Amino acid sequence: SVILVSISSSTSSGSDSPQPAPPSPTIGNLGDLDLANLSNTTTPSLSPASQATSSNNKLREKLILQKIETISGSLIQRPTTPQRFAASWIIDHDKLKLDAQSPYLIQRYVIAVFYYALGGEYSWPKTYNWMSESTIECSWTGLECDENNFVTKIDLSNIGLTGSLPKEIAGLPHLKYLDLSQNDIFGALPNDIGMMNSLEALYLERNDITGNVEKSVCELREKGTLQIFTTDCTKIDFKIECGCCSNCPDTESFLTPTLESGNDDIDLRKSGISTVLSAVSSEIFKDGSPQQKAYNWIVEDDGLKLDRFNEHLTQRYVMAVMYFQLSGDSWTTKAWLSPEKNECSFIGIVCDRNMYIQVIKLDHQNLSGILPKEIG
């Protein structure tokens, strides 16, 4: 039998250097807004119906501003801040037209601040659908939500983001997983992260974040809530002082049961790999499944010792899944899945110049079974 599979692969990259801030959407004269008298303002030249609409719009604006001021303060009044851009977008441009009573107002505002603070349209890949005005944020690339549509995961690693992490990120109380690794994020780590009591994993390495990690953040590690926390604090790439990060020296007293002292580097690698591969396969932890066998081979037996940052990790995993799914132990080539060779060297595999698989031709290998979905 012959299996011929054509796979196209591509990577996206963002800006290599900070870009100018996006032009500010307008909020009228927000900087001079009289919040106290806003609801009483009318326009005599308008018809009664138009006056009512105008008054309702201004009241909505007033109440929204009052609510988001509780987490951003006066920053929403400053003309060129990410907070101002986000407030303008929520009030004037977002087609969902949330009001101050919506349980999702703060969440949507925080996500908008996050977007503008990290470069906006100048940094984000064009294929990402952030700031889509007619869809809920849970459908935006890199975000995942729970059954109640509250954001629980943000995965934006290696997409070229540039800027400083805004303190408003702490306004996502349901967030469990935040991966911003391998970007161009600079500045200090916001102290407000110490208030994120649901946060379990925080990946910030391979950025330009500097300064000190505050005690409030480390307390999340002490309590066992924040199980994984990585920054550029290793001896090789030292940029930030951190006494509680998973990948830094002198963190033993903060290690949780899932990151036992002496094994934290190994467990950190496993955790990162499982995060990447679980997006490809939902069965990597299903006992006896080809997916679990492939995962175990990658993290334990594979001599290449790839980590979650390797662009060929998923490709190698898929080859392993295929091997175990199609009764690899019975193949004619007994050592087809070699732990010492790149997958492009496997018999029947043809790759392009970038080492991405283009052709799989496995005739006369005594294959049996169903081709795994991961091959797609």
UniProtKB/TrEMBL annotation:
Keywords: Signal
InterPro entries the UniProt entry points to: DNA_repair-toleration, Leu-rich_rpt, LRR_dom_sf
One of the Pfam families matching this protein, by short name: LRR_8
Region of interest called Disordered, as start-end residue ranges on this chain: 6-33
Compositionally skewed regions (Low complexity) per UniProt: 6-17
Protein name, per record: Leucine-rich repeat-containing N-terminal plant-type domain-containing protein
Annotated source species: Eucampia antarctica
